[in-house]
Design a protein that fits this description.
Length: about 100
């Protein structure tokens, strides 16, 4: 329990920043019209390419016996790839809505 309290006290500014970012993000998303949600979310999902590259770098720099870093890196690559592909699939479906039917 002391380790948790020490972690919280030593990283207090970061914790407050993350909480503030959550509230600001919720407020910004609530103000966006529903018509713009799909293109904004698909664009945000495409940004996860940076997460994939970062996870690959983490996995490459990790020692072979550091299974935690390797597992977290693998999970980040997997989830980031799914998010990127999902973003492009959503964008493709959105663009098909605006095509004229044959």
């Amino acid at each position: 329990m002391n380790q948790v309290l020490n972690f919280i006290t030593s990283n207090q500014e970061i914790i407050y920043t993350v909480i503030l970012m959550i509230f600001v993000g919720i407020e910004i998303i609530e103000k966006v019209p529903s018509v713009l949600h799909t293109p904004l979310m698909s664009g945000a999902n495409a940004i996860h390419g940076v997460v994939i590259i970062g996870a690959i770098i983490v996995m490459g720099k990790a020692e072979q016996d550091n299974y935690l870093a390797l597992a977290l890196g693998f999970i980040a690559v997997l989830l980031g790839t799914l998010n990127v592909v999902g973003g492009f699939v959503v964008t493709d479906r959105m663009l098909e809505m605006f095509k004229k039917k044959k």
